[in-house]
Amino acid sequence: MALAMQQMQDRSSAPRLLAERVREILIIDDHPLMCDALALTLKISFGLKNVRTARSLASAQEQIRSQGVPDAVILDLNLPDARGTEGLVALRRQMPEVPITMISADLEDAMISAAMAAGAQGYLSKSLGRESLVDSLRRMWEGEHVTPEGYEPGHAGEEDAARAALAQRFASLTPQQMKILRLICQGKANKEISYELSIAEATVKTHITAIMSKINARRRTQAVLLANSVRLFEPV
């Protein structure tokens, strides 16, 4: 538990960006109208010339590899290929120091808490007005953790730290291991996972052994419970 507390302290003491230094932003949202409107708002409000967009987690990750790491990211909670905190965990693995803002119409306290534990700099409602949106982003880029008005964390202290540590363990999974864990959470057997991912059943078993080791789970049911506790995969 001391390690978990230290991870929370390390996160809070991470280097802070100045909002004025955020010059390149990546918006990841599969709704074109929302994406375009947000990009235009940021260009006008912050004087940005380069606002990149992506419609899925996979395309965002490929863009980051090919075009470089942005100064900040705005991430939709639910994408075609990632729902819940999965996208956040994957991007945290790829860009550990970049502030990532979650944006969603889902304002459930448990979801917000899971996202913050997984490393989000903040969590915004899609219904925010322009001035509130801009102010919230500016505060986040200055280092503040911003959550919706009325949000009440369900856990505190050591429990919060434990959730953050668990999210870190999930972030250590490879993309293939994350796919397999998602299928496990859907109740798929090894043979079904093998068929769906076009890999040998023995390879599936090897990956599952690695997954269990990384997240400190002894059996599949425990792995599912752990994933659910940080809202890693949300039902479609």
UniProtKB/TrEMBL annotation:
Residues 166-231 form the HTH luxR-type domain. It holds the Pfam family GerE. The modification 4-aspartylphosphate is found at D76. The keyword Lipid metabolism does not apply. It comes from the Bacteria. The keyword DNA-binding applies. Residues 24-141 form the Response regulatory domain. Keywords: DNA-binding, Phosphoprotein. InterPro entries: CheY-like_superfamily, EvgA-like, NreC/VraR/RcsB-like_REC, Sig_transdc_resp-reg_C-effctor, Sig_transdc_resp-reg_receiver, Tscrpt_reg_LuxR_C. PANTHER family: HTH-TYPE TRANSCRIPTIONAL REGULATOR YHJB-RELATED. This is Response regulator transcription factor. It comes from Paracoccus aurantius. The lineage of its organism: Bacteria, Pseudomonadati, Pseudomonadota, Alphaproteobacteria, Rhodobacterales.
